[in-house]
Amino acid sequence: MQELKEQIALVTGASRGIGKGIAIALAKCGAFVYITGRTETEGETATSLSGSIGRTEAEILSLGGKCKAIRCDHTNDLEVQKVFEQIFAEQGQLDILVNSVWGGYEHYNDGTEFWLEEGFWASPLSRWDKMFSAGVRAAYVASSIAAKRMIERKAGMIFNLSYWASQRNDMGVAYGTAKAATDKMTAAMAHELRPHNIPVICLYPGLVRTEAVLQAQDHFDLSNSESPEFVGRVISRLATDPAIMDKSGQVLIAATVAIAYEVKDIDGKQPRPLTRNEA
């Protein structure tokens, strides 16, 4: 599978989780994948979860793929700018930007119980700040830098990750608001980039078997779950669709797109799309 051969991709937040899976999937399709994250080597993370950009890079290289990891804190605009400068200096182009980096999950270490709190008034204000600074704003900054060069080349595409929390009221005020902002940001970006033929698409994953989910798998029904690579497979297929502009600005459920494109998960299964009430 070399559908993305000679394509240059950047996946932010690829130390672990969906970001890592997307990076692996894009590399398997032939793309040269740059990845960012704060954790350079195993054991440096503030959480108990495994993973690092160094490990992701090593795994991709071991599969015969092309990858380069760049340490970046996406709340630091200067570091973000340097990432893009390096990519354009080395490659002269960026064809695919996937905004996967996400902050706010530090609640696993801030002494509170996420989802079990009495209400938003009982959660730390830092959660709101991190979900926007290392989530929504991070995607905005990366997209704004990438868009300038994509417009110059008249080529490129941007993918943002969001979730059903944007359309529900019972998944946390900060989380739901941040995801709703991501959905709206995608639509507005797509509107402004449409004259330049650059699509911006928002994707909803289902229940993904990330390190965090597997760590708490006793609390989940994984019978209809997705591998971290699944969304990456969907993005790879979208990236090769000549009619992708028809989907620009839309919020798409990854599993629904997969059915339309006949994209299976790495285990050969076809995940069923979740509904708003099931997510």
Provide a descriptive summary of the structure in words.
With 279 residues, this protein is an alpha/beta fold. It has a single domain (8-261), classed as NAD(P)-binding Rossmann-like Domain (Rossmann fold), CATH 3.40.50. The protein contains eight helices and seven strands, in the order E-H-E-H-E-H-E-H-E-H-E-H-H-E-H. It has helices spanning 17-28, 53-62, 77-91, 125-153, 173-193, 211-215, 230-239, 254-261, and strands at residues 8-11, 32-37, 66-71, 96-99, 157-161, 200-204, 251-253. The chain has a seven-stranded parallel β-sheet with strand order 3-2-1-4-5-6-7, with helices on both faces. Strand 1, helix 1 and strand 2 (32-37) form a beta-alpha-beta unit. The relative contact order is 0.14. The model has no long low-confidence stretch (mean pLDDT 92).
Low-confidence stretches: none
User: What is the H/E string?
Assistant: EHEHEHEHEHEHHEH
Main sheet strand line-up: 3-2-1-4-5-6-7
Number of helices: 8
For the largest beta-sheet, the strand count, sense and barrel status come to:
7 strands, parallel
Task: Identify the notable features of this structure and list them briefly.
alpha/beta, 39% helix, Rossmann fold, 279 residues, globular, 7 strands
Question: Brief overview, please?
Answer:
The protein has 279 residues and is an alpha/beta fold. The chain has eight helices and seven strands; from the N terminus they run βαβαβαβαβαβααβα. α1 (17-28) links the parallel β1 (8-11) and β2.
